[in-house]
Amino acid sequence: MIDTTQPAGTLTERVDSQDWDALTAEVNEYGHALTGRLLTPDECTAMAGLYDEPERFRTTVDMARHRFGSGQYRYFTHELPDAVGKLREALYPHLLPIARDWAAKLGQPSPWPDSLREWLAHCHEAGQAKSAQILLRYGAGDWNALHRDVFGDAVFPLQVVIGLDAPGVDYSGGEFIMTEQRPRAQSRGSSTTLPRGHGLIFTTRDRPVASQRGWSIGPVRHGVSTVRSGRRHTLGLVFHDAT
Q: What highest taxon heads this organism's lineage (predicted)?
């Protein structure tokens, strides 16, 4: 059931008050999970409005030009809006135990320290020093091809997208879609309508999937279905930086 109540408290308090046991169980089962409301409607409107302030961004990507789909997105500079920085800092410690558990199940290294600041310093030492926080804008007919937000060897296995417009009111279509390649089986797809102000936690690249031989790697890709009408904005929170 979607939480329609107005979030109270600071951004950190809103993140901390989520049912993290339930979210963790859902992420482990499906590779993604929808949070309660993290941003108020007014905060969503303000965040979406930043798209028209180009000085806040280091680059703009035209998806059609690069054959990524259709529409635009912009990468923030490291001078992040206060809400973006606080959400990222607040979410990281809750996602970290999942990341470490996944690495243990797959027998992989777990390079992520306790603080986001330390992890980002590691990214920069590895040559990934550009901000990867994204503000996306889609109009009617726009879509995003299936992809992964991997920018180098330093990868955090989970990320979060927050809806900034109301589906069915501000736009139609534009569902968040994921495909998961299962061991020795056909891929599984999922579709999520992203409520305004809510976050979707999802797999960045791959995750552990139970198999007859224990745990196998399940590669995951994500994208956005075609927006049928209106305009759709989302905020993408990535927990590693880019090359």
A: Bacteria
